[in-house]
Amino acid sequence: MCGIIGISSDKPVSASIINSLKKLEYRGYDSAGIATLSDGNINEVKSKGRVSNLERNFDIKNLKGNIGIGHVRWATHGIPNSVNAHPHSSHNVSVVHNGIIENSTILKKDLINKGHNFKSQTDTEVIVHLITENLKTTELEEAITKTLNQLQGSFALGVVFKDIPDLIVGARRGSPLAVGYGPNENYLGSDSYALKSMTNKITYLNDSEFCIIKKNQINFFNDKGKKINKKILELSSNELSSEKGDFKHFMAKEIEEQPTTVKTGINEYIDNVNKDINIFNFPWKIEEIKSITLIGCGTAYHSCLMAKYWFEEFTSLDVNIDIASEFRYRKIRFKKESLYIFVSQSGETADTYAALDLCKKNKMKTCAVVNVIESSIARDSNFVLPIHCGPEIGVASTKAFLGQMLILYILALKFGSLKNEIEKNNYQEKINDLKNLPSLIEKTLLVDNDIQNASSTFNDAKGSMFLGRGFSYPIALEGALKLKELSYVHAEGYPAGEMKHGPLALIEEGMPVVVLAPRDSYYKKTISNMQEVIARGAKVLLITNKSKDEVISENIWETIEVENTNDDLLPFLLTIPLQKLAYYSALKKGYDIDKPRNLAKSVTVE
Ligand code: F6R
């Protein structure tokens, strides 16, 4: 959460910092701020709310300085207002911070006793005063090393100094941080995306390292303050752009891009000539893998749940799934013969990273399914399966969900084939079906009108439910998550067969209920569950697939049909109307679709 940018240049930096902050808003948007150095002063400007508020601030226009740091915040300590906005400054030091300082209360007490004055409710201000305190007795590098050793918790930091006006210090533990190399200027960023418009030459800091950035030189240090060398990486260029184009919202664009992203994923992994799946350089023999644990958060967790059904369908592997924030604190009995798969769009989610780290420390086999291939999770896993979706900017994940499901589906099929547990013809038929998926998604995207009409009913209701069985159950969970995060309507995803064990009590006259009932092996059972909710007054929006047979049930409020494909690919198509339902609900309410309240795209706090 939160975004950091720093620029050290031979020309004024405030306009470039503002531009980068706009790009970083996906990481947090409850306040923004900037600090530059000029004429022996720290110039700080901060605003509550969006970067556009900061841009309108009169003081920004007059902000001089060839060196500066900026920040967009997602509040953890202290309410979102301009006082708690970053940067935080003492008389000689200014800091931007992502993460949480766990021992801030103790450190603050001590610093107050030493005469330091605090202005905000944040944990970050402790870092500012600690550096100021340590600079009284030591030189820069030693003061930084000492400060970092005093901090507990997670952080990525950008620091500028009134009395050392030609440099920025960057440091990290737990939260990601990158530096970038430009012509007569160098950069600091909370991720490579922040820097992409300025440079494609990047170095990532590892945990406990720090750096000193000048306009024409960058030095790196380890946790002991000793100089180290680090590699410069060239970032991949993405043909899918991070601009909105003609679309009103990134989310709309990203939903419509799905035929292309799925096609790219298929082209990357499917060998059309031999009708086979290519997973190049997979580092283990299939016999070494007896079980799989899939780990993720939010939407990524839903793709893990989906994958469980596919792995169980195509292989005899023992398949477990876990929510990263639970996994990392449980007493896990690690199994040598297990493969741990980490699913994450950003590749920076703090809980997922911590779960990966735990597996690494226990010497487990780790595999990352990520969109951002330069991310921490990708870099620190034994093996990476990129989902090739291009930048996903809308906070609500859409194309990355389909991308994650696609790669996990492909992996499940491949494992089934390698273990000789899926019959060859069946395997090749499924590969054939995959090739048609992009065009089926494209056709399913035309469900627009019906969904737009239905969305008003969800907005007017005090709650709603999303039901599905088997392959449709994870999609029901995802549909409910999308609706609640975008239109702030209470929505609950449930296995349809579980309704009678409690949630049926929630159903009352007119309550909107989405029932996912494609004509798969669960169809009849789901239709029975649908009738149970209709009988109790629910207004059912049935989502099924096209068929010559009519649905035999009375009193269905609305029916939406997706295209037809084999049972295990139907989840891809069922997802489309649910993404659109959430989109149109939020649109009708006039909510901020790409930046829903209280959320952020990259969740780098636990
Ligand atoms: C919901 C959503 C989140 C993310 C979750 C994990 O639309 O986007 O639930 O899926 O925060 O993020 P990543 O995939 O970046 O690890």
Question: What topology emerges from the helices and strands here?
Answer:
Blueprint: E1 3-9, H1 14-24, E2 31-38, E3 41-48, H2 51-56, H3 58-61, E4 67-73, E5 88-89, E6 93-101, H4 104-113, H5 124-135, H6 140-150, E7 153-161, E8 168-173, E9 178-182, E10 185-189, H7 192-195, E11 201-204, E12 210-214, E13 217-221, E14 227-228, E15 233-234, H8 250-256, H9 258-269, E16 270-271, E17 276-277, E18 291-296, H10 298-314, E19 318-323, H11 324-327, E20 338-344, H12 350-361, E21 365-370, H13 376-380, E22 383-386, H14 399-418, H15 424-444, H16 448-460, E23 464-468, H17 473-487, E24 491-495, E25 512-516, H18 523-535, E26 539-545, E27 558-562, H19 570-589
Parallel strand pairs: 18-19, 18-20, 20-21, 21-22, 23-24, 23-25, 25-26, 26-27
Antiparallel strand pairs: 1-4, 1-10, 2-3, 2-4, 5-6, 6-7, 7-8, 8-12, 9-10, 9-11, 11-15, 12-13, 13-14, 16-17
Helix pairs in contact: 4-5, 5-6, 9-14, 9-15, 10-14, 10-17, 15-19, 16-19, 17-19
The chain binds fructose -6-phosphate (F6R).
Fructose -6-phosphate binds next to helix 10 and helix 17.
CATH class of the largest domain: Alpha Beta
Number of domains: 3
Helix share bin: 25-40%
Overall average residue pLDDT: 93
Physical arrangement of strands within the biggest beta sheet: 3-2-4-1-10-9-11-15
As a percent range, the share of strand residues is 15-25%
Poorly predicted spans: none
Radius of gyration: 25 Å
> What's the CATH architecture of the largest domain?
4-Layer Sandwich
Q: Total number of helical segments?
A: 19
Distance between the termini: 10 Å
